[in-house]
Design a protein that fits this description.
Helix 6 links the parallel strand 12 and strand 13. Strands 3-5-1-14-11-12-13 form a seven-stranded mixed beta sheet, with helices on both faces. It has a five-stranded mixed beta sheet with strand order 9-17-16-15-10. It has a five-stranded mixed beta sheet with strand order 18-19-27-28-29, with helices on both faces. By secondary structure, the chain is α+β, with helices and mostly antiparallel strands. It contains 18 helices and 29 strands. Bound molecules: dioxothiomolybdenum(VI) ion.
């Protein structure tokens, strides 16, 4: 057996690998942010505005301050200076609500923090926060759900830089639509949705002199460090952010929110660690949500099913001051071949908390609209929806006129249809039955960006034969600890149980946010370069240490495999464990560092880099009792090389489950008189639970995309959600004959 064969046989890349942090999680040893406690630690509970528009006139904290165990009640008058943070070039200092807490007396949204009570216990702090009395000059809030574009300039400033409102255009979409033989003009609406990870946002802040340490439930320790350093006027070396385990985030924890600086400021005033865990109700108010969108889609096609024109004009809601852009048009310009296209957006300001990234931001609501329109057009043309998509498969990215780095959408569609049994579909509405239930079958496509953020990593090879790999990225529950162990194992041949992975600490080499589905693809080059450097150091020890079996050899003659240093010409069987060599040299460890360059959001890319996929969905409909169920799903993903199919399938299944929620359950409802998100709890804001989750059959195509990194891995965190809702609403139509164009599908929509 040759060495390369041996290597691929033992490689963990592409192999189901159990989470290395699994035992710590199931035994309760894993410490989430709110699990950390410190001597003298105090508890903070914010007081929330009970209006959504107006001015704070008076604040009475006297009752709260006199409560036993209360240390302070902070507000604008006594919190001390909190500066604004500003955006930085590159992907740094991102923050979606820039206004520091208490900066002025203006109330812009319901639940905005107006004070924060600090006490010896959480219960006392809560009682004190509840005892704070406020008076307001109250105005009628605008939380209207019908969206009309505000008076924005052609180029708007967003959290990620300036964006043109005419987002993409080619040909003459207006004329081509006017003359198209077959037309569709429909508007699709997605509601405000709220991130509901199990773990609440939590932060504990403490100061030692001018050094601020934060334990925070963040998807980005490095970015949070930059933002907080600026907000407190500190060099960033003086701020350390730690997030060892996260109970997910869905994008809501990507960037710091106002409670973080509130905890830091309170801790500064009192000289004690301050822990602030927000409530489930606050999760709906102050830590971001997915924008409501209203998307008009116009499609023109020939009777044979060739697209001739596509318009995507969308409007989303947003808070009064914050610049978040819900990029619903992200996938529209390249997803299908169409000579005439126009994508535009408008924005509607509302008295609501900041909008934010939520799993598949932009593309997920966007693809709901465009894929729904594709399905409706296929129906109008009497062409099978899979075939309609195949007829409009692009050869290149027609918006940028560049090739795709790796696109296998056609294969996704064909494989999905085969695995699902799509050829047995009778397109007549309500015609398919099983066990007394009406079946509905629907499908839709998916896409999501690919690329890399900048990343650095450090690797140690140690004299006990263990390896440490360190990177200031995070594991939000998706398996990043395990992926890094697999990567380190790939380079060293050391068993994953002997690899220590250190993440979630801004003191480690700068790592990417756990966002954009880019963490894995970003860290690969950094980890591999760090490993190469560490191995080079190791081999220098091996050839230069008196008594080493490799003394006097040239480094090029040697290699490391299976944890052994060996002479290439002699084979690994005659190798020596690297720990023995280090011990023989009295060297505790050798180390190496590596970095990856950012390639996402390039100005002039050579390739159009995306992942693709599709979902096939079956629903059952029992008209007599108006019972709708998603009964099975087949999903195919073209997401580059899959490093860990076990955690990979888990990610996609989780996303499909979330897609069922998007289609059927999730919506944040604002109460017009008060502007409050009124279903701000997990009883009234319905998410999919296990009982709603059908069998989900996930297939990966596993084509490496070498434009992304040397392993060809893209990302899988978000794409699994894209398209699910459109597939479900198509299946609902097929079962019931009702076209629902506003999510979520409600039973009353189907009773018509
Ligand atoms: Mo994702 S919305 O980038 O956490």
């Amino acid at each position: 057996m040759s060495t390369t064969q041996q290597q691929s046989k033992t490689s963990l890349i592409g192999r189901d690998t159990l989470r290395i942090d699994g035992p710590r999680k199931v035994t309760g040893l894993a410490q989430y942010t709110s699990d950390f406690s410190f001597p003298g630690m105090l508890y903070a509970v914010p007081a929330e505005a009970t209006i959504a528009n107006g001015k704070l006139l008076t604040l009475d904290t006297s009752v709260a301050e006199k409560m036993k165990g209360v240390r302070a009640v902070f507000h604008r008058g006594n919190i001390g200076k909190i500066f604004r943070s500003t955006p930085a070039p590159g992907f740094d200092r991102v923050c979606l609500e820039r206004r520091p807490p208490f900066e002025d007396d203006v109330i812009r949204y319901y639940g905005q923090y107006i004070a924060v009570a600090i006490a010896d216990t959480f219960e006392t702090a809560k009682a004190a926060a509840d005892a704070v009395r406020a008076t307001y000059a109250k105005e009628k809030p605008n939380v209207q759900s019908l969206l009309e574009a505000g008076n924005d300039p052609d180029v708007v400033f967003t959290a990620y830089g300036p964006v043109q409102r005419l987002q993409s255009h080619r040909g003459d979409a207006v004329a081509a639509f006017a003359s198209a033989p077959v037309k569709l003009d429909e508007t699709y609406v997605t509601p405000a949705e709220t991130h509901n990870p199990l773990e609440l946002h939590a932060t504990t802040a403490m100061w030692e002199g001018q050094v601020l340490t934060l334990y925070d439930s963040t998807q980005g320790v490095v970015n949070l460090r930059s933002v907080l350093a600026q907000m407190f006027g500190l060099p960033k070396e003086n701020v350390r952010v730690i997030a060892k385990f996260l109970g997910s985030g869905f994008g809501g924890k990507l960037y710091p929110w106002t409670h973080v600086s509130l905890a830091a400021a309170a801790s500064r005033q009192l000289g004690k660690p301050v822990k602030l865990v927000i409530s489930r109700k606050m999760m709906f108010q102050t830590v971001g949500h997915r924008a409501r969108t209203q998307q008009r889609i116009r499609v023109g096609a020939t009777p044979e099913g060739k697209l001739v024109s596509l318009h995507h004009d969308y409007i989303y809601h947003m808070s009064l001051d914050d610049p978040y852009h819900e990029d619903c048009g992200e996938a529209t310009p390249f997803h299908y071949s169409v000579p005439n296209l126009r994508v535009t957006f408008g924005r509607a300001r509302r008295n609501i908390g900041a909008t934010a990234d939520m799993r598949g931001p932009g593309a997920v609501p966007g693809l709901y609209a465009t894929e729904s329109a594709m399905n409706e057009m296929a129906d109008r043309l009497k062409i099978d929806p899979v075939r309609f998509r195949l007829l409009n498969e692009p050869k290149i990215d027609e918006s940028l006129n560049i090739p795709f780095s790796s696109r296998h959408y056609v294969e996704c569609l064909n494989l999905g249809a085969e695995k699902f049994g799509w050829s047995k579909r009778n397109p007549v509405v309500g015609s398919m039955k099983r066990d007394g239930l009406t079946l509905g079958w629907g499908m839709a496509g998916a896409a999501w960006i690919a690329g890399r953020f900048a990343a650095e990593a450090n690797m140690q090879l140690r004299d006990d034969g263990t390896v440490r790999i360190a990177c200031a990225t995070q594991d939000i529950g998706t398996g990043t600890y395990t992926i890094l162990a697999q990567l380190a194992a790939e380079k060293t041949g050391v068993d994953v149980n002997k690899i220590e992975v250190d993440l979630g600490d801004s003191a480690l080499p700068d790592g990417p946010i756990s966002g954009g589905s880019l963490a894995t693809s970003s860290v690969i080059p950094a980890v591999f370069k760090a490993a190469d450097q560490a191995i080079t150091s190791l081999l220098i020890v091996a050839i230069s240490t008196p008594g080493s079996p490799f003394l006097g050899r040239s480094p090029e003659d040697l290699a490391l495999q299976g944890g052994r240093i060996f002479v290439k010409a002699e084979g690994v069987a005659k190798g020596v464990p690297f720990g023995d060599v280090l011990r023989g040299a009295n060297v505790r460890l050798v180390a190496g560092s590596g970095s990856s360059e950012m390639t996402a959001f390039e100005q002039n890319p050579k390739f159009s880099k995306h992942s693709f996929g599709c979902h096939f969905v079956e629903v059952t409909w029992q008209a007599e009792i108006a019972r709708l169920r998603v009964s099975r799903v087949v999903t195919v993903m073209d997401a580059g090389r899959i490093l860990n199919p076990l955690t990979g399938r888990n990610q996609i299944q989780g996303a499909v489950v979330m897609g069922i929620g998007m289609a059927l359950f999730e919506h944040t409802t604002y109460h017009p008189p008060t502007g409050a998100p009124i279903n701000s709890n997990l009883a009234d804001y319905i998410v999919t639970v296990n009982a709603d989750a059908p069998p989900i059959d996930v297939h990966f195509l596993d084509y490496p995309d070498k434009e992304i990194n040397e392993l060809g891995a893209r990302g899988i965190g978000e794409i699994g959600l894209a398209g699910v809702a459109a597939a479900i609403t198509e299946a609902v139509y097929h079962a019931t004959g009702v076209r629902v164009r506003e999510l979520p599908v409600k039973i009353e929509d189907l009773l018509a």
